[in-house]
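User: What would this chain look like folded?
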Amino acid sequence: MQILTKSLLFGSVLFTSTQAAGQGTMYACESGRQFYNVNIGTGAKTLLGNISAGNNITGSLTFDCATQTTYLSSTGGLAGQPRNLHTLNVSTRQTTIVGPYGDTAIIMHAIEIDPRTGLLYGVSIHNHGLYSISRTNGAATLIGLTGIAIGATTFNALGFDSDNGIMYMINTGTDSLYRVNLGNGNATLVGPLNGPIGCGGMTYNIDNHTMYMVDNDGDILYTVNLSTGAATAVGSTGVGNLIGLVYVTPTCPPPPNCNADFNVDGVVDFFDYLDFVDAFSSNLPGADFNEDGIIDFFDYLDFVDAFSLGC
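Assistant: Here's the prediction, encoded as structure tokens.
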């Protein structure tokens, strides 16, 4: 399995637009609920209007191709009150609340879906921990810490390479790209961005097999090399404060190539086995290998079977 070079938006969105097969649209939002269309070729943004009221700070977006649903993370709220997960209709810009994350300390500035499993993940600012998020009620469950230093108020963005089945993260404290282990949350450095210093969001374009990120410090749209971390400018988005990015498309990714690659590092080896056993022992959501909603010995047997077959 090769790892190829291949970038999130604030909130939840339901896809209703009529686009030709194989063609999608990139959207972005600002913290003040402004919602834009972004030209993939030039980076220029066009204001479509405001996301509906009820979202104090619109902070991250992700899109589930299988259900054609866009999700939005609201990262603002009154003191002591939990932030919420929403769905967002990109045509009307109306949101529907899914539910609170639970822990009032959570500020989920990064959310992203693994289209292979339909599982929704997020990273919170307060501890830089990776969480699984219920798409039914919004409840967030800690999987593990990414290893990014806790204490500094730095932001993260998530982007899932749906061609190769790998979750990536950018952190504004290090201005670098990381590969994220969905089994235990650990982030492994890929490399520095070499330029951008204010990543607001990431999204993956499966139609052209490219990861994008938006820098809200320099107001520029970039592509990101997933082998080195280096960012290449596409063009200016214009003055603003884009903190979310999402690519909405009718093109769904192919089925997973290799379920045995549990830590999604592109290689099936004993570390996959160890990581699965660790997740299974800790009753983490990723240990539900057969996706029947229950973590039990059948998940273990199914993983061992897949691991034995290899890829």
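DSSP finds two helices and 21 strands in the chain. If you want, I can go into more detail on any region.
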